[in-house]
Amino acid sequence: MTTALPQQSAPPMRLLPKKSRLAIETMIELTQQTLDVFEAETNGLAMNAHVELLEIMRNKQEINALYQQAAGEFMARQEELLSQNPRRTQELITLQKKLSEAIKLNMSILERVNKGK
Fold this sequence. Notes:
This protein has one domain. It starts with 19 loop residues before the first helix and ends with a helix. The protein has helices spanning about 20-45, 50-75, 80, 85-115. By secondary structure, the chain is mainly alpha-helical. The protein has 4 helices and no strands. About 75% of the residues lie in helices and about 0% in strands. It is elongated, with a radius of gyration of 18 Å.
């Protein structure tokens, strides 16, 4: 009689490349994609475009999950990555500030929509 061992799930695939320059580029791209999808959702909410919103929200969940994973990887390598290219680092910081503002706006619109129901 054999005893089945509990299945171990594979470790999550790393999103950020090992090379610092490529890791920053990937983080910038993911941040921009996340910003774009939050802005699209905010616009869809403001225009009351229900059909498009469903697709946007699905896309937002997927992109946001990737962004969150990459952000965790980035934080683990923050010192290494931020010391690479000051111009690209500043671009990433600027994008992250824009993303933060877009998320705040998105949340305030979602709150208003939910209160109106």
